[in-house]
Amino acid sequence: QVATVKNILKRMAMMGLNMFMLYTEDNYVVEGEPYFGYMRGRYTADELKECDDFAALFGIEMIPCMQTLAHLTTVLQWPAYAAMKDDDTTLLVGNEKVYEFIERLIVAASEPFRSKRIHIGMDEALRLGLGAYFRQHGLRSKFDLMNEHLARVLQIVEKHGLKP
User: Fold this and answer.
1) Phi–psi pair at 142, nearest 5 degrees
2) How far from chain centre, in Å, is Cα 125?
3) Which terminus of the chain has a lower count of CB atoms within 10 Å, N or C?
């Protein structure tokens, strides 16, 4: 995987590109989260740093891209995450354990990189608020839930000196 990233970076350098957004979803190691990326070929922090160091040789900024709301089917399938999920793909907005989890993800995703920018993907939350959230709190506007969640995630990002 690292060799592939380096090959892409070399090609980007030849094209004069200066930014590479590495999408990882659950493919990086997070301390204390053995099921995060389990059996999916996770990048270690050292491997991510190696890629970032290589990118820097060519003046390319590497930006980590992660998920902080939905698109997490492969993670949420594990019973260890049952209390944190709204449905099979989406985290449970307002749950404090979710924000502790997201903070660990943000730290692990960003530490190996020089960049202070981070992509905090929140796409594909199609059933937001319609699973466990609905059973616990009743129906709320998806727009309101998304904004509430975004505000919490932004607090975490800013706490760590990052720019979303």
Assistant:
1) -60, -35
2) 14
3) N
